[in-house]
Amino acid sequence: MEAILFFANSSGRDLTAVAIPAIAAPAGAHTHDSTAMDEQQFQFLYEATARPIHAYLIGITGQRDIADDVLQETYCRFLSRRPAGMPPGESRPYLFRIATNLLRDRWRTRHETQPLDNFDQAHSDDLNSQLDVRRVMQSLKPRERELLWLAYVEGMTHTEIAVATGLTAFSVRPLLFRARKKAAILLRPEGERP
Amino acid sequence: MRQRTCERAPSVIAATRSGISPADLPAELKDHIAACAFCTETKRITQQFQHAATIAAQTPPPPAHLVWQKMRAQRQRQALRRATQCVTVMSILAALYAVVLTAWYLPQLWHMQPSQNSTSLSALSSGTVFVGVLTAILAVFLGSCCLAFLGSRTNFRLHS
Ligand SMILES: [Zn+2]
């Protein structure tokens, strides 16, 4: 089931909100263990939420194998650590937060570089635009990529970004402003660049 | 001074994210973007990041059943590790007990007079039985605590 359209306006959120109540409260599941999840329930959750998180991981790392690993670990952590009775709308930033933390842990412990190979393999018909994206992503720090992605691809508010990154809402604003400034300079048309 | 924000920026992001072509934007928003440097920049950044997202989305996530299988395998490995942890703890306790008992029992045997042997041995054996029973109860208690603690550390359940 292709449950969500990643780029469609807010469709990811709407479907997440629809799919997760069915998971949080499956018929007859309360009597036993409210945190238990069977394969079908997992599939609903996964199909409603995995695409934007996977795209986010590829966008930040540029590497499919890392994105796949981190995505799988994200769901493992989510299932084992989600607070009981978590409202459905909160799953999305919570999943992004787990994914972001796992990625940072990985970079810290394995000293992995971020070559952003995926952008080379993309089948884009607009080569200039593709090169622009690649140049911008490579010039930004991972934290800056995270913030800009969440703001401009996911359309998150500062509060949501704070939840998704583990930063305080107060510190998101200046960090995002600085990242945006850097990206804006990189994306300016040739003649307007400093 | 450089403009730090614009109240219309969220509308510009939302409109760009929705995929509306620039020509189809509401005239009033189009006029604002043309006049506002901050929103022009916002539109450009959103478009580029949306493009990056389109490229990223060309690589689909692994299928749900595959992730589920990997999660189950990982879950089983964790369970095995937890079970082994408990056995390891109990083995260490058993080794410690053996060392302490030997250290306590051997010197007594060494200093024992031959005439005292029969009475001392019966006293020793009743003492040993007492210590053995006590240790068994302690081991069962500690083992249960260990299992209960390790079991409570996860609420992760996967139905087969
Ligand atoms: Zn504006």
What does this 3D model show about the protein?
The complex is a heterodimer of chains A (194) and B (160). Chain A is mainly α and 194 residues long. Chain A has a single domain, classed as Butyryl-CoA Dehydrogenase, subunit A, domain 3 (Up-down Bundle). Chain A contains nine helices and no strands. In chain A, helix 1 (11-24) packs antiparallel against helix 2 (39-61), helix 4 (91-110) packs across helix 8 (158-165) and helix 8 packs across helix 9. Chain A is globular and about 60 Å long. Chain B contains five helices and no strands. The longest helix of chain B is centred in the middle third of the chain and has 48 residues, at 64-111. Chain B folds into two domains: 9-58, no CATH class; 64-153. Helix content of chain B is 77%, strand content 0%. Chain B has 160 residues and is mainly alpha-helical. Classes of the chains: A mainly alpha (194), B mainly alpha (160). At the A-B interface, helix 2, helix 3, helix 6, helix 7 and helix 9 of A face helix 1, helix 3 and helix 4 of B. Residues 6, 8-9, 32, 36, 38-39 of chain B line the site of zinc ion (ZN).
SSE layout and pairings?
The complex is a heterodimer of chains A (194) and B (160).
Chain A: H1 11-24, H2 39-61, H3 64-81, H4 91-110, H5 118-121, H6 127-139, H7 142-152, H8 158-165, H9 169-187
Helix pairs in contact in A: 1-2, 2-3, 2-7, 3-4, 4-8, 7-8, 7-9, 8-9
Chain B: H1 9-17, H2 27-35, H3 37-57, H4 64-111, H5 117-152
Bound molecules: zinc ion.
Brief digest:
Chain A has 194 residues and is mainly alpha-helical.
